[in-house]
Amino acid sequence: MNRPPAPVNVSVMHLRADSATVSWEVPEGDIIIGFSISQQRMDGKMQRFIREVNTTSRSCVLWDLEEETDYIIQVQSIGLYGESQASKRIHFRTLKKTDRFPSNSSNQDDPTVQGLDKARHLQTGEMIIIVVVLLMWAAVIALFCRQYDIIKDNDSSNSKEKVKPSSERSTPEHHSGGLLRSKFHQSVPSINIIEV
């Protein structure tokens, strides 16, 4: 029941005036089901905790940051049996709003936009996995229902075969052994044998 190891190689990228992306790595071997990030201003005025479970993500975008402000962050891994120790404290400073969109670059070259596209692809990949799993379950259920119908049909046809002869006899056309047989009896002359 050991706690997972602390995240390593924590770094801050895509630094902007009001956002930044934190990324980290997790040592091999332990099952990690989420992460927890503590974000604090250096002046101590504001502290925020971000916690996500049921994710294999190794990065997180921090929003609503203030421009030209120093922050300290720490990351923890969440495992099946609790949280890891906090990572080393990482310090970063947000940019000025004037630095946000340099005149010589377009939105396409903006690393934050690229980061968001990457996150969107990850979500699309996760959606594809979910859809495939749901389709597989639907196929299994459909196959089960089909097999169940075949078994049910076999059972009902077996019981119909047992009932069939009596139901045929009870129909008007086949009354008293069927039409052919009754006609045949009428056309054969009866022979009376008289013993002397």
From TrEMBL:
Its main location: membrane. Gene3D superfamilies: Immunoglobulins. Pfam families: fn3. InterPro entries: FN3_dom, FN3_sf, FNDC_type_III_4/5, Ig-like_fold. Keywords: Glycoprotein, Membrane, Secreted, Transmembrane, Transmembrane helix. It is found in: Membrane; Secreted. It is a single-pass membrane protein. Residues 155-176 have a biased composition (Basic and acidic residues). The chain crosses the membrane at residues 127-145. Residues 155-181 are annotated as: Disordered. Residues 4-97 form the Fibronectin type-III domain. One of its GO terms (cellular component) is plasma membrane. This is Fibronectin type-III domain-containing protein. It comes from Onychostoma macrolepis.
